[in-house]
Design brief:
The structure is a single chain. By secondary structure, the protein is α/β, with parallel strands linked by helices. Helix content is 46%, strand content 16%. The chain has a 6-stranded mixed β-sheet. The protein has a 5-stranded parallel β-sheet with strand order 2-3-4-1-5, sandwiched between helices.
């Protein structure tokens, strides 16, 4: 079992909120993580099981009789009517806590594999009573260095990463893609054709790290732009695709307004493109875009809550691959390079003059952090992740000391 970085964040959320939602794609490890915090006395209900759903025919009575135990409700988007009785039970627990002095926190742990519908339902019904934790695939701070190349090639789904052979990993990911298209799409959008969505998903893989041209995408699929947008949003809501939004605060510059698109898991990206192993990846034209997406997802997997990601690009060519904006307004500018001797283009310098970031990093696949000119630091991916997880207060020198 891998030690998940989100375990501490989840434990902290349960200590401050009555209900916590863990969001992540299927098979990413949500249930395993939930069991870690629910043992030994937690109650687990799988809402895809007819037997467990029947237990909740009278949800309020059933759950009230089990108060005092952490209740884990898996695939909670299957039963959206559950949020209303949960609100009543949480409020009752709060009233009782005000008398006894015992905090009414850590009552319910909800697991979901889609974001939009679940967040809307829970946030509207359970406003002020709920916290959110997003669980991505495994990343470098969770696996030993010997697996880092495999992590990039196979992706972060535990079963794909730990498969006995590359061929077994490819088979698992192909089955995963087919299951999502045939089962989950039908659940969330029954009118969406699985074959159309597969074509879109594959086309997005070819466009990895590119700025979205929705009209061209729709023409290539032979559908209208509104339908293409709906399909894209569905893949985004299923936490399979990321639309990285452009920076938009600098009104004096002519900025790109379309998002950049990424297949979030590098292993799924490679399966959609027919890439089976590291040798095939290094020979494929997508290798640079794949590394960029892998780095961005790795960094965002450890970014503290409240950090907002975007990218910066002007019509004149100034560009930053990833801008992280902290709640205090501080910005970090991150460029991604696959070269072991990274060089920074003029456009990055120009973009940094525009946004004035506090930190400027070039994340590359090397082993050593070292300074470049103009306050830019070359950073190995794992060191950048460690520094980002600590936050604005830590210096790179401190993080190097922690590593050594």
């Amino acid at each position: 079992m891998f030690a998940r970085h989100k375990l501490i964040e989840l434990q902290q959320a349960l200590r401050r909120a009555p209900a916590v939602v863990v969001l992540g794609p299927r098979q990413v490890g949500k249930t395993t993580l939930a069991w870690q915090v629910a043992q030994p006395d937690g109650l687990y209900l799988d809402l895809e099981s007819p037997e467990d759903r029947r237990k909740l025919d009278n949800a309020e009575e059933y759950l009230r009789s089990r108060q005092g135990r952490l209740v884990v409700l898996d695939e909670v988007q299957r039963l959206p009517t559950l949020f209303e009785p949960l609100r009543g039970l949480i409020d009752q627990a709060r009233r009782a806590a005000s008398v006894s002095g015992t905090p009414a926190t850590g009552l319910y742990l909800l697991l979901g594999s889609a974001s939009l519908d679940l967040i809307q339902s829970s946030s509207e019904t359970l406003a002020g009573r709920i916290a959110f934790v997003e669980l991505s695939g495994l990343h470098r701070l969770e696996v030993p260095p010997i697996l880092w190349d495999s992590l990039w090639v196979r992706g972060g789904f535990p079963q794909a990463l730990t498969a006995a052979t590359d061929a077994d990993s490819v088979s698992w990911r192909r089955d995963f893609i087919r299951t999502y298209l045939e089962r989950d799409v039908a659940q969330f959008a029954p009118r969406v054709g699985a074959e159309w969505l597969r074509r879109l998903w594959t086309m997005l893989a070819h466009l990895q790290a590119s700025t979205l041209n929705l009209s061209q995408l729709a023409r290539n699929l032979d559908i209208d732009a509104r339908t293409a947008q709906a399909y894209l949003e569905l893949l985004t809501d299923l936490l399979l695709v990321r639309q990285l939004r452009p920076w938009h605060r600098n009104q004096g510059k002519r900025l790109v307004k379309s998002p950049k698109v990424y297949i979030r898991d590098s292993g799924l990206l490679h399966s959609l493109l027919g890439i089976a192993d590291l040798e095939g990846l290094l020979a494929h034209p997508v290798v640079g875009a794949s590394w960029e997406g892998h780095v961005i997802e790795s960094l965002l997997a450890v970014a503290p809550a409240g950090v907002t990601p975007s990218f910066y690009r002007t019509g004149a060519g100034a560009e930053i691959d990833l801008v992280l904006t902290w709640p205090n307004g501080e910005h970090w500018a991150i460029e991604v390079k696959r070269s072991t001797t990274p060089k920074v283009e003029r456009g990055f310098h120009s973009a940094c003059e525009d946004i004035q970031p506090r930190r400027k990093w070039v994340v590359y696949p090397g082993a050593e952090a070292y300074p470049l000119r103009d306050g830019i630091e070359a950073m190995p991916l794992e060191l950048a992740m460690q520094a980002l997880s600590i936050g604005p207060g830590a210096s790179v020198e401190e993080e190097i000391g922690r590593k050594t």
